[in-house]
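Hi U.,

Before I forget, here's the chain from the pilot set. I'm dumping it here mostly so it's searchable later in email.
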Amino acid sequence: MNVSRRAVLKILALAGVATGCQHTTTAQATLPPGLTFMLEGNAVEYSAASQGCDRIVVQGAVLLPDGARASGIPVHITTEDGDFDETTQTQDDGLFTIVVSDALVQRVYRVQVLDPVSREPVSDITVAESIPDCALNLMTVIFVPEA
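Structure:
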């Protein structure tokens, strides 16, 4: 069977696979000058991760002075020994979620908010110690503006 290039492209277009190249731009998040953050209530909250029992997850949000959740804000998570070192960012809904271990382990993680432009820290390091328990394998950190 001999199928023309045009026929293949038509099938792909109808299937929604082939689309034109579209350049999209995402506005870079910015923070007001001098704005710094701290951990809400000075506490990490622990609960069961909906992603399952075989992992440790860190989730959270960065709140702006008006209480809205900020999107596009980098959050750096690392361990003391550098074995885990990742930067994620808050999504359009203002939340971030990252799997920091594919096993239930007891480990100390450092979580810090970064400025989206300079990538400099705009919060102190929050220490979050994971608990190897299925009911406590989700650590939630909410950052709020410092007063």
